[in-house]
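hey so i finaly got around to running the thing on Alpha-hydroxy-acid oxidizing protein from Catenulispora pinistramenti. pasting the sequence first so u can double check i didnt mess up the copy paste, my clipboard has been acting weird all day
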Amino acid sequence: MLTTPGPGAQSVVEFEQIARARLPGEVWDFVAGGSGAETTLAANRAALDRVALVPRAMGDLSGRHTGTDLFGVRAAMPAAIAPIAYQRLVHPDGELALARAAKRAGIPFTVSTMSSTPLEQVAEVGGTTWFQLYPLRDREQSRDLVRRAEAAGCAALMVTVDVPWMARRLRDVRNEFTVPAHVSAANFTDSSAAAGARQAVVGDSAVAAHTAATFAAFTWPDLTELRRAASIPLIVKGILDPRDAAKAISLGADAVVVSNHGGRQLDGAIASADAVTAVREAVGDRGTVLFDSGIRSGLDIMRALTLGADAVLIGRPALWGLAADGEAGADRVLGLFHQEFAEALGLAGCPDPAAARTLTIWRGSV
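ok and heres what it spat out for the C-alpha cells, dont ask me to read them lol
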C-alpha cells in the first residue's frame, strides 16, 4: 500500500535540496555528479523536458488505475528502484530502509552488486527484489552472486553492461573520494574486496580504482552464458543502440533498460529519452523496455511511457528521500511519485498505464 506524501515537501524535486543540505559535500558529489563535463547528465533532463503530452478528452476514467505487471508480479505503478551502490553513504539504514519503502510502495527494489547491505538481508525485507550484477573479473564470483540471488528469492536478474570500468567523474577525482569506514561492498565475501573502495588513491577516486580492479567488460557470449545459468527473468541494463536491444532480446534477455547510467559513463552519449523510442521499435512486443536516467517526477514516468517504455527505474530521487529522512523520507518520495503519476495519467485522459503509450507527443525546445 502506497503511503501518502504527508506535510512538507510537495514534489519529488523538492527533496533534492533537502538531501544536498544534509549530506557531506563529497557524498553529495558522488550521488549527484556525472562523468566528464556532465554533458549527458544535463541532456537527460533537457530531453525529458522537451516531451510535451497531447491529452485526450472525454474518455471513461471511472476505472482508472496505475498498476502494471513486471515479469509476472503486479506493481502499484510502472516503476522500480534502480540499482544504487553504497546506500549507507546517505543514511545508516541504507538499502534496508529503501527496500522497506519500496515494499510499501508496491514496486520492486533492485539490490546492487555494490550494495552496502548483503543481498540476502535485503531480500528478507519481503518485497519484490531484483538483483543487479556487475560483471566481475573473477567469473566464479559473478556466478556465485547469481546463485546467491536466486537462492535468496530474487525475482529478476539485471546485468549492467556499460561499465567495463568507471568513467572519470571529475567531482570524485577532485575530492579524492573514498567510501568511509562504516560502509563496505557487503556482497563481497573477501574482506579486501569488500573494503576496496575505502583505500584512498591520491589524485583519483577510490571507487573508480576499485571498479577498475574488480569489474570486467561484458560480451555477447557472456550474455549467452548468463542466460543459460540464470533461471529467473534476465534484464540487460545500459542499452542505447536499438541494434543492441534487438540482439539482447534475440539471445534470450527478457528486457532491456535504456540507460546512459544517469550520465555517469560516456559523457556525450545520447539522452535516454532520445533513445527509447527506437529501442522500443527494435524490441517490439518480444521483450520489456525499461527506462532509466533522469526520472524526477510522476510526469516523467508518463513521458517515458509515451516514448515507448513499459516502466522506469527511479534512482537519485530515492536517495534524496533516504538522505532527507531515512525510511520515512523514502516513503514520502515514493508516495509523491505515485501521486504525481496518478494525476498526470488522469489529466491526460488515460485510464491506465497502457493507455499512455497511445498518446501523441510533441517534442519542442527547452
